[in-house]
Design a protein that fits this description.
Helices cover 50% and strands 7% of the residues. The chain is mostly helical. It folds into 3 domains: 9-210, no CATH class; 235-324; 353-540, Intergrase catalytic core (hpI Integrase, Chain A, Orthogonal Bundle). The protein starts with 8 loop residues before the first strand and ends in a 7-residue tail after the last helix.
C-alpha cells in the first residue's frame, strides 16, 4: 500500500481520537520549516513541521466511528499528496496559476464575510493594513527594505497562501511564492473593496470573480491541449465505486440513496458526466440553484439544511473518495457550504393529543380498497399504532419481519435489527409490545402472515430499498391527509409524542432512551443494561390510546 491506514488513538483526556502519522524519513529533511494546512471536517488546521517534529499529530474532532474513519483516511491522503509534492521538488507557477490561486483567496474571503460585512470603515482599515504590510512599515519588521517588505507580505498574506497551496498539495519555488504573495495582497485589496460595497448595501454582480481562471496543476506542453490532469471519470462511475467501498464499511442503504440522489441532481444540472471537469464554481452554482427549487410536496423552497446535509455532504464524500483514490486532483466541494440558521418553531414537534387520536382513528378504520396491496393496507393499519406505543422510527417499524415479533417469558416484544433493513444507530434493540396492541390483534396478524417482511415485499430483483421507501412515504401521506399542518413531520412526530408521554408517566429517562434507541446521555448511562422486564414495566405505564 502507498500509505498505511492509521488507526486513531483514543486519548484519555479527550473525547476525540487522535490522528498520528510518521513523516517519511526521505521527506523529513525537506519538510522542516513548512506549515501544512490540513482540512479536518469543516476546519483548516495548520501543522508546523519543526526540527523536532517526527510525526503529524492532530485531533480528528469527531466521535462518530464512520466519520472518524473518513477523516483519518482523508488526512492520510492529504499528507501523501504533500509528501509526493515535496519529493518532486518545488515547481514554478505560471502567471495563470498564480492568478487562479490568488483568485481562490479572493473568493474565500468574500464568501466568508459577504452575508455580514460589518461596516465600511472595517474594510478601509484592512486596506490600510495591507498597504503597511506590502511596504514593510510594521515596527517589528527589521532589516533591509526588501527584507521588511517580504516579512510584511508573509505576515499579512502568508497563512492564506499556505492554505491554497496546501489545498492543492503544491511545493512551489521561492520566486513563485513571492509572486503569489504579491498577487494575493492585490486581490485581498479587491476583496476588501467588494466587501466595503456590500457593507454599504451594494450587492451587484461580482464581475471580477467570473474572470478568475480555474486551477490546473501543470501547464500544458507546447502544442498539446490537455483539459484535465486525470483520465476522464464519469460521475456515475465515481459514485458506483465509492459505494462499493462505502458499503463494505457499513454505510446504510439510506445513505446510498441520499448521496446517489445528490449525484444525479448534479449530473442533470451540469448536463455532462465528467467528474474531472467539475469546479468549485459549478458546485456553488448547483447549490444556489437547489436553494431556489420548490419542494413539490410542501410547496416551499428546498431548505438550506437539506442542501447542506444531504446534497453537499453527499457530493463532498463522493468527490473526496475520488481524490483519496487518485481518480481526481481536487475535491470541488471543499469549502462550499450553506449557512443554516435556526428556524423559529411555530408549534411543538410532536402530535397533539387530538392529532394523535385522529391518525390512530383513521388507522383503526382503514380497510383495503382498489388496487392497494394487502401488505400496504396492513401497514396503514398497524404502523401508526406501533410507532405510538414504541417511539420507534417509522422506517424501523416498516422494515419489521415476521421473525422480529417474538415472545419470551415476560410477554411479546419486537426486535429492531439492521439485518432487516435500516436502523439509524446500527444497533439491535428489543422493544416490548404494549398490551393494548396485543388486545387489538397485532400478534394474531403476525402469526397469520407469511414469512418475510410484514408490510412490503421485495421487488422482482429481490431488492428491498425501493419498496421500503415507498411504504414509508405512503404512511407519511396517509397521516398527512389527517393532520395537514405543514410544521409537523408526520413520520417523526410519533417519536416526540412517545417521549413526552413517557415523561408524563414518570418512566425513567434511561429506560425511555433504551426503548427508543437514543444514545446514552453520559458515560455512566452507557454502563449496564436495561432488562426487557424493566422496559415492559415502563411501556405499560403509558395510558391506553382510546379513539
Amino acid at each position: 500500500m502507498l500509505w498505511a491506514i492509521v488507526r486513531p488513538v483514543r486519548r484519555p483526556e479527550s473525547q476525540y481520537p487522535l490522528f498520528r502519522k510518521r513523516i517519511p524519513q526521505d521527506v523529513l529533511p525537506k519538510a522542516r520549516g513548512k506549515s501544512l494546512a490540513l482540512k479536518i471536517g469543516d476546519e483548516v488546521i495548520y501543522s508546523q513541521i519543526t526540527e523536532k517534529t517526527r510525526e503529524i499529530k492532530l485531533s480528528l474532532r469527531a466521535t462518530d466511528p464512520s466519520e472518524v474513519r473518513e477523516r483519518q483516511a482523508d488526512l492520510a491522503a492529504q499528507l501523501e499528496r504533500h509528501w509526493r509534492a515535496i519529493r518532486s521538488g518545488p515547481q514554478r507557477l505560471t502567471h495563470k496559476q498564480v492568478v487562479s490561486l490568488a483568485g481562490e483567496i479572493y473568493k474565500l474571503v468574500v464568501d466568508v464575510f459577504e452575508d455580514d460585512p460589518e461596516t465600511p470603515e472595517n474594510w478601509d482599515a484592512v486596506i490600510e493594513a495591507n498597504r503597511r504590510s506590502r511596504e514593510g512599515l510594521w515596527p517589528l519588521h527589521i532589516g533591509s527594505t526588501e527584507a521588511r517588505v517580504r516579512k510584511g507580505h508573509e505576515h499579512a498574506f502568508g497563512p492564506l497562501v499556505d492554505f491554497v497551496i496546501s489545498k492543492h498539495s503544491l511545493e512551489i519555488d521561492d520566486e513563485s511564492r513571492v509572486r503569489l504573495l504579491r498577487k494575493a495582497g492585490e486581490f485581498l485589496d479587491r476583496a476588501a473593496e467588494r466587501l466595503k460595497r456590500n457593507a454599504e448595501g451594494d450587492y451587484s454582480t461580482d464581475v471580477l470573480r467570473k474572470g478568475f481562471p480555474s486551477w490546473t496543476s501543470a501547464a500544458p506542453k507546447q502544442g498539446v491541449v490537455r483539459a484535465s490532469t486525470q483520465p476522464r471519470v464519469s460521475l456515475q462511475t465515481l459514485f458506483d465505486d465509492w459505494w462499493a467501498e462505502a458499503k463494505a464499511t457499513g454505510l446504510s442503504e439510506a445513505t446510498k440513496s441520499s448521496y446517489g440522489n445528490a449525484v444525479q441532481r448534479l449530473r442533470a444540472f451540469l448536463k455532462h458526466e465528467d467528474a474531472a471537469r467539475v469546479t468549485p464554481d459549478d458546485i456553488i452554482a448547483f447549490k444556489d440553484a437547489r436553494l431556489r427549487e420548490i419542494n413539490p410536496r410542501s410547496g416551499k423552497p428546498i431548505s438550506p439544511k437539506t442542501v447542506k446535509d444531504s446534497d453537499l455532504a453527499g457530493l463532498k464524500s463522493v468527490f473526496g473518495w475520488g481524490v483519496r483514490n487518485r481518480r481526481l486532483d481536487t475535491n470541488p466541494v471543499d469549502g462550499v457550504t450553506v449557512k443554516v440558521t435556526r428556524v423559529a418553531r411555530m408549534r411543538t414537534k410532536s402530535f397533539t393529543v387530538a392529532e394523535a387520536k385522529a391518525i390512530l382513528g383513521a388507522s383503526l378504520a382503514h380497510r383495503r380498497a382498489g388496487k392497494e396491496s394487502p401488505k400496504m393496507a396492513a401497514a396503514k393499519r398497524w404502523v401508526p399504532w406501533l410507532c405510538a406505543y414504541t417511539g420507534a422510527r417509522v422506517g424501523e417499524i416498516v422494515q419489521l419481519c415476521k421473525v422480529d415479533v417474538r415472545q419470551d417469558e415476560g410477554g411479546w416484544h419486537i426486535r429492531i435489527t439492521p439485518e432487516a433493513g435500516r436502523v439509524k444507530d446500527k444497533d439491535v434493540r428489543d422493544v416490548p409490545l404494549h398490551s393494548h396492541l396485543i388486545e387489538q390483534g397485532f400478534v394474531s396478524f403476525v402469526e397469520a402472515s407469511e414469512e418475510g417482511h410484514l408490510f412490503y415485499s421485495p421487488n422482482a430483483a429481490g431488492e428491498t430499498g425501493g419498496p421500503w421507501r415507498t411504504t414509508k412515504n405512503r404512511i407519511r401521506d396517509f397521516a398527512r391527509k389527517v393532520v395537514t399542518d405543514p410544521d409537523v413531520q408526520p413520520n417523526h412526530a410519533w417519536r416526540h409524542r412517545f417521549l413526552t408521554e413517557g415523561r408524563l408517566a414518570k418512566v425513567p429517562e434511561r429506560v425511555l432512551h433504551e426503548i427508543t434507541g437514543h444514545a446514552p446521555a453520559n458515560v455512566g448511562e452507557a454502563y449496564g443494561e436495561v432488562p426487557l422486564s424493566v422496559m415492559r414495566d415502563g411501556i405499560e405505564r403509558f395510558p391506553r390510546l382510546q379513539v
